[in-house]
Amino acid sequence: MKHRHPTASPLAKLLRPAALGATLSVALAAAALTAGPAAAQSAKEPVKFSGAPVRVGEINSYTGLPAFTIPYRQGWQLALEEINAEGGVIGCCELQVVSRDDAGKPDDAVRVAQELVTNEAVDVLAGTYFSHIGLAVADFAARNKMPFVAAEPLTDAITWSKGNRYTFRLRPSTYMQAAMLVEEAAKLPAKRWATVAPNYEYGQSAVAWFKQLLKEKRPDVEFVAEQWPVQGKLEAGPTVQALAAAKPDAIFNVTFGADLAKFVREGEGRGLFRNRKIVSLLTGEPEYLEPMKDEAPEGWIVTGYPWDQIDTPAHKAFVAAYTARFKESPKAGSIVGYITMKAVAAAITKAKSANSEPIVDALAGLTIDSPVGPVTFRASDHQATMGAYVGTTTVKDGRGTMKDWRYADGANYLPPDDAARKMRPAE
Amino acid sequence: MSFLLVQALSGLATAATLFLVSSGLTIVFGVTRIVNFAHGSFYMVGAYAGWSLIERFGGTPAGFWGSVAAAALAMGVLGAAMEVGLLRRLYRSPELFQLLGTFGIVLVVQDLTAWAWGPEDLLGRRAPGLKGSIDILDQPFPLYDLVLIGLGPLVLGLLWLLFNRTRWGTLVRAATQDREMTSALGVDPARLFTGVLFLGCALAGLGGALQVPRESVTLQMDMAIVVEAFVVVVVGGMGSLTGAFLASLLIGQLQAFGILVFPQITLVLVFLFMAVVLVLRPHGLLGRAEEVPPTATAAVTVPLSAGRHAGPWALALLALLAAAPLVAGDYALILLTEVVILALFAASLHLLIGLGGLVSFGHAAWFGLGAYGSALLVKHLGAPMPLALAGAPVLAGLGALVAGWFCVRRSGLYFAMLTLAFAQIVWSIAFQWYAVTGGDNGILGVWPPGWAAGKATYYWLTLGLCGGTLWLLRRVAFAPFGYALRAGRDSGLRAESVGIDVRRFQWMAFVLAGTAAGLAGGLYAFAKGSVFPTLLAVPQSVDALVMVLMGGIQTVAGPLAGAVAFHLLESEVMSLTDWWRLVLGLIIVALVLIFPKGIVGFLSGFRRRA
């Protein structure tokens, strides 16, 4: 009957975060020792560092999309170990990474970023996979004047319409990947095109760019059908049937992951791909191609990452180190994670400082040698010139892979500096 | 013509899967009244188990179908285990408390599945003997889909026989109609319920295992199916198998033909359909009126009491909270700001659940509308923060005014699903109206101006506004308005007979709750600096429910305690381990078992005994 102090419990709980903040770093150190990158590094002769460590706060959707983000994490872990084994950054200091999950939600990502900045005293932010989360963290970075290297989000907005001084993006954007595919699509005789893309910004801007760029090169093409399935909920049968009914000569596909597998299965079953050319975004990435095993589509024109066939010495060394370290083959995410961390380290070393403004200045125009070739973060729009591999899918030894591919250097698929600068908000 | 026929057949194949999963859900709900959030998890694990078995044994038709059956049976056993280990202990708790328990199971299953099968999508074998397609009027159609089309009616027929021609089925139907009378006649309800959970979860597992030849098995399958299954159940009429069958057929066809007419409508089609059906038919297509609509309250409720010294305690707490910036760091302040905002969000939902007996599955709509209200004012009109904050409750309140008018005309789970439908409609508008809302890329740059930019200042501002609103909500609970609302909750008929217009009171409560949630949303927007459709999405609504239930619905302080506990747990566990869903899920299950009346409910019960 007596509700004397129903508030006693929340009070006790409310007081906890302050105490938790203090214990958190201890717990974290313990967690890092068991699972984190620090563990592997201690195996070899420890490197002596003369200066204070430089800290990177890393955020990604590790529980939301583990199939894509865990290869990415392994990529940056490998890079981190290499960096510290070679003497760290600025020739004096250990590079440390504090990694966090964002649960796939932008508001959680912003909270985590705040925690990394205030409690973990990180000097640089990096990571993110989803476009909206990348944008949320980019906005946070600008607000708090923290350098942020967005690793994987594809949206054009992050470097263009919503670009800011503190945000840089590594992976080739939706625009760049679409432009690479248009180059190939324009060579096809196909005149009637259909599109299928997930119903959100990524799918929509990919289709919009593809249409616009292809029309510029081939005014004679027409787009006869479009399908916009919900991401992750593709109704494969009806969608395939609806596309087939429009009798297109070729199809531009943007679906990926589980939707792609469904689309391919149902499309094969219903003869959608017979005598048709399919041009498909990202489908050549092992993340999407490998789960389909021997059912991977044949003869699709795709962007991707044929990791087993790239035989430059730098890339071979990367593959060897990665497979030795993690006992599995690298994915596209792995190479993105690897280059992200190398770029962060290079920027800090170039800046000779762990402070925000020098690092941001260093990132603008920074060029690093990566396993895929030289990559430059353009000073004009903060987009890296990392490219993608354009080729044709095929099935070899019971698994999907790419053939007849070439490396499309991102620098060739970006608008000129002036045009890019104009798309960014005034600073 | 042939194209339309094949399109209709494709719709039928979709419908078959939907029916298998939702039939299990409707059976479980009809008998036990349990809102089983974990139903989708059984579907997902059924698919994973089916994948493993089919990879090993699926080379022959017998091996394939045996594997599917084994996966379904395994899910049935797991479902029965969940009933015995968890749900059985909660039958005396407020009815929705089981929902919280099953939510904990969802989290645990997500992590355990990722741990057992790995993060990658798994593409299984095709069904042996059914790999190809046949031409139907010159249009190729997959053989396996034809089999699925046949399976739907077959399962419906078998279920009908089970329920109408066996003793067990008769008992289940009796329990569906009147649980108490059945047990008074000497039928052990616990055993009956175990059997029902077995059957329901086996059907979910069957639906999952049958997907293996059609699509890859992923960790996102559970959430993808469970909401849709609820839609089917509610559209068909709860507890009605034929209704679920009919609803599956309609939704399958709607999806097959909807994308031909308007491809972009995929996001919201099923929810629009559900809203229309529920507005027109109060109990779905084939449901019957319930004698006692399920409410959040148990049969024996402790009446809400004002508490003798609540005022001084609240003031002391407020003073203590206001002093927090003196000792707390920036991050602790941010966490506290979020906790205070979420406390208001949870309290606003509690106004509906605790006082009105109206369980909303779509409360995020008003939180998100508030956030968008603020963000849109800032983005399009360059409004200063005070004006933008004032706009938040207004937009949310207006939204709730419209949606509430429809929603309060329904009760129980129909009410809950109608609120969900409205939330999904609002969500899809925010998601797709790029020119105004920025679509899924959201609205950025919604930061407080210089004078409120300091973490402490913004915290105090939040504390003041939320504290004030919470005080108002508390006043409402103990004002005549609150008593009228509770009268309507406890007995609508008696309340009407003494002249209370229950519906109008519920509508006003709905608007008030929406307005308060909107203010919380507006504050949240400025705390985060950006607004995304995720704030309007199902997980946000579920979070609110979890907070309210965790704290306990019978006290005013419950939702506040729930918000504090849930948010701190989530954020702290998340930063400590990648397995945070497992840990959080286990904690929720443990809480449910230890405090079947919620945290505050437990504390006050404890004091009563002492």
From TrEMBL, chain A:
**Entries under SUPFAM superfamilies matching the protein:** Periplasmic binding protein-like I
Report the domain of life of the source organism: Bacteria
Residues forming the Leucine-binding protein domain are 53-394
According to the record, the signal peptide region is: 1-40
Q: Which UniProt keywords apply?
A: Amino-acid transport, Signal, Transport
Q: Which Pfam families match?
A: Peripla_BP_6
What CDD domains does the annotation carry? Answer: PBP1_As_SBP-like
UniProt cross-references to PANTHER family, sorted A to Z: ABC TRANSPORTER SUBSTRATE-BINDING PROTEIN (PTHR30483:SF37), LEUCINE-SPECIFIC-BINDING PROTEIN (PTHR30483)
Q: Which family does it belong to?
A: Belongs to the leucine-binding protein family.
- Name the UniProt record assigns to this protein: ABC transporter substrate-binding protein
TrEMBL record, chain B:
Subcellular location per UniProt equals:
Cell membrane
Q: Provide the alphabetized UniProt keywords.
A: Amino-acid transport, Cell membrane, Membrane, Transmembrane, Transmembrane helix, Transport
The residues that cross the membrane are: 62-84, 96-117, 143-163, 192-212, 224-250, 257-280, 313-333, 340-367, 387-408, 415-436, 456-473, 507-527, 547-569, 581-606
Pfam annotation, one family:
BPD_transp_2
| KW Amino-acid biosynthesis (keyword) present | no
- Domain of life of the native organism: Bacteria
Q: How does it sit in the membrane?
A: Multi-pass membrane protein
PANTHER family cross-referenced by the UniProt entry: ABC TRANSPORTER ATP-BINDING PROTEIN, BRANCHED-CHAIN AMINO ACID TRANSPORT SYSTEM PERMEASE PROTEIN LIVH
Q: Which family does it belong to?
A: Belongs to the binding-protein-dependent transport system permease family. LivHM subfamily.
| Name this polypeptide is given | ABC transporter permease
